[in-house]
């Protein structure tokens, strides 16, 4: 009996040792991390087919970015290529499949940042650029500016040779139905209060209407970091609202000395907390790990009343994926090509 117990104890110890060794191998091993938005994502509300579709999409994006990195491509090329895959996938609130504004339009925002030079580019409120992340990169590399908006950004993108599409390209039936639902809720709530005296009525009745942003952070073989984020913003958004995604330091940031960050969530709170830069500053000035810095900034968002998540990858290949919602579409790939994909808490 004692001998059997000893064998069982030894087997358990060996298993624990292997698991610890496996976990330790992950330290400093990540080269690409992505997200596809955070929100009330519950397994009970997800069909097996839909769950597999999301996982397949995230996997395709990771494989695309990893292929760029493996071939010696830059982290900047990797995050752009990765985000383009997600922008072209109607499952996500970015590019094709973007949510509708109150006026029934798809208005897109995106940003990209080079951790080596801290050069950055962004576009906001664009309606005809197929891949806003590429427009953001064009702003960074082909102009002296950091951000362009609306028709001006569209004109620039066309002159830069980017693909221009009819606005109908971005329309999907599910997003249109989402707008109709939000408009109905808006109408019912407005009957009870004056929208112009109640800040909660300014386009954020259902807080989950804002999720679905996509993003990527990468570390290349040369040790350079990059980050990119793209979004359709918030369902039923009004008055030309712009969130955190295209704002450098709020929703997107990369610095070779510390970390690359891409955020998703209630943009107003990310802007007010300068979340992406704050995470970097906590690492640079206080010496926090990427995991601790990530938890700290998400707590700040939550303490103020906001919600969402982020992905972060530090200069040593350590990553973090903190969020304070029910779920966040997310994934990562290691140096050796092992892919990890998660949806729920």
UniProtKB/TrEMBL annotation:
Give the superkingdom in one word: Bacteria
Return the InterPro entries for the record.
Ntn_hydrolases_N, Peptidase_T2
Q: Which residues form the active site?
A: 213
Keywords on record = Autocatalytic cleavage, Hydrolase, Protease, Signal
Listed under GO biological process in this entry are: proteolysis
Under the heading Pfam families, the entry gives: Asparaginase_2 (PF01112)
Kindly list the positions annotated as binding substrate.
241-244, 264-267
Q: Which residues, if any, are the signal sequence? A: 1-23
Q: Which GO terms describe its molecular function?
A: hydrolase activity, acting on carbon-nitrogen (but not peptide) bonds, in linear amides; peptidase activity
Where is the site described as Cleavage found in this chain? 212-213
Q: Which PANTHER family match?
A: L-ASPARAGINASE, N(4)-(BETA-N-ACETYLGLUCOSAMINYL)-L-ASPARAGINASE
Name-wise, this protein is: Isoaspartyl peptidase
Q: Which organism is it from?
A: Chitinophaga varians
Lineage, top ranks: Bacteria, Pseudomonadati, Bacteroidota, Chitinophagia, Chitinophagales
């Amino acid at each position: 009996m004692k001998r059997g117990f000893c064998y069982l104890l030894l087997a358990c110890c060996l298993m624990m040792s292997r698991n610890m060794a496996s976990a330790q191998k992950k330290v400093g091993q990540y080269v690409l991390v992505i997200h596809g938005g955070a929100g009330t994502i519950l397994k009970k509300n997800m069909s097996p087919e839909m769950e597999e579709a999301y996982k397949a999409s995230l996997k395709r994006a990771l494989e695309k970015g990893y292929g760029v990195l493996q071939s010696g491509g830059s982290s900047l090329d990797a995050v752009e290529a990765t985000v383009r895959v997600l922008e072209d996938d109607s499952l996500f609130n970015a590019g094709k499949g973007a949510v509708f504004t109150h006026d029934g339009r798809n208005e897109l925002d995106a940003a990209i940042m080079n951790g080596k030079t801290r050069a950055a580019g962004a576009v906001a409120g664009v309606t005809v650029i197929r891949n806003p992340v590429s427009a953001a990169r064009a702003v960074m590399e082909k102009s002296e500016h950091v951000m362009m908006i609306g028709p001006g950004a569209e004109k620039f993108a066309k002159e830069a040779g980017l693909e221009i599409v009819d606005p109908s390209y971005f329309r999907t039936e599910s997003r249109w139905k989402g707008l109709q639902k939000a408009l109905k809720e808006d109408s019912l709530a407005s009957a009870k209060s004056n929208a112009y005296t109640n800040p909660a009525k300014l386009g954020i009745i259902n807080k989950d209407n804002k999720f679905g942003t996509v993003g990527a952070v990468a570390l290349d073989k040369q040790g350079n970091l990059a980050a990119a984020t793209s979004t359709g913003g918030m369902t039923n958004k009004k008055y030309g609202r712009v969130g955190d995604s295209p704002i450098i330091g709020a929703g997107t940031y990369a610095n070779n000395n510390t970390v690359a960050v891409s955020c998703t969530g209630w943009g107003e709170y990310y802007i007010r907390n300068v979340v992406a830069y704050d995470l970097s500053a906590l690492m640079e000035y206080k010496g926090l790990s990427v995991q601790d810095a990530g938890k700290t900034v998400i707590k700040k968002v939550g303490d103020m009343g906001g919600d969402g998540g982020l992905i972060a990858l530090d200069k040593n290949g350590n990553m973090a994926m903190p969020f304070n919602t029910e779920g966040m579409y997310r994934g990562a790939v290691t140096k050796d090509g092992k892919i990890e994909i998660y949806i729920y808490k």
